[in-house]
Amino acid sequence: MINNKVTYKEKIFPYWRTKFISYFDIGEYTVKIDLSTLTARESVYVDNVLVSKKQNLGQHSIHSFSIDDNKYELLVDIKNSFTGPIDITLRSKGIDIDGDHWVFPCARPGLITGLLFAAIGFFSAIIFNTLL
């Protein structure tokens, strides 16, 4: 199950997406992980009960929790907070059970913004040189 809710801002500027939610089913239980690349917060819920919460300023984190005396781990691997991708892996007893792979859109806001400011600076320099 994937959260397909996209805001109006994300439709216009898809590279501004900062919140990622993944769901995993373990028997009758539903595990939800909520990631924010803007605030670096990661929260793990089992049937809407918070079981792990971290502020991840690095690239890797591990959330450990138990369901019915079975230990599980959610591994989060963020390659880059701005360009992605994000890998989320559900693991039990060292075996990968399930996972999600979030890929960011190809548009690079830094490149677009940088080119825009370079063009503004270039034309501003030409105008000021002709006026002075």
Outline of the structure:
This protein is an alpha+beta fold and 132 residues long.
CATH class of the domain at 18-103: Mainly Beta
Helix content: 10-25%
Strand order of the largest sheet: 1-2-3-4
How does the overall form come out from the CA principal axes? rod-shaped
Q: What series of H and E elements makes up the topology?
A: HEEEEEEEEH
| Amino- and carboxy-terminal Cα gap | 63 Å
Total E-strand runs? 8
Transmembrane segments: 111-131
Keywords: Membrane, Transmembrane, Transmembrane helix
Description:
With 132 residues, the protein is of the alpha+beta class. It has a domain at 18-103: Beta Barrel (Lipocalin), CATH 2.40.128. It is built from 2 helices and 8 strands; from the N terminus they run H-E-E-E-E-E-E-E-E-H. The protein has a 4-stranded antiparallel sheet with strand order 1-2-3-4, with no helix packed on it. It has a 4-stranded antiparallel sheet with strand order 5-6-7-8, with no helix packed on it. Strand 6 (70-78) and strand 7 (86-92) form a beta hairpin. The mean pLDDT is 80. The chain crosses the membrane at residues 111-131. Keywords: Membrane, Transmembrane, Transmembrane helix.
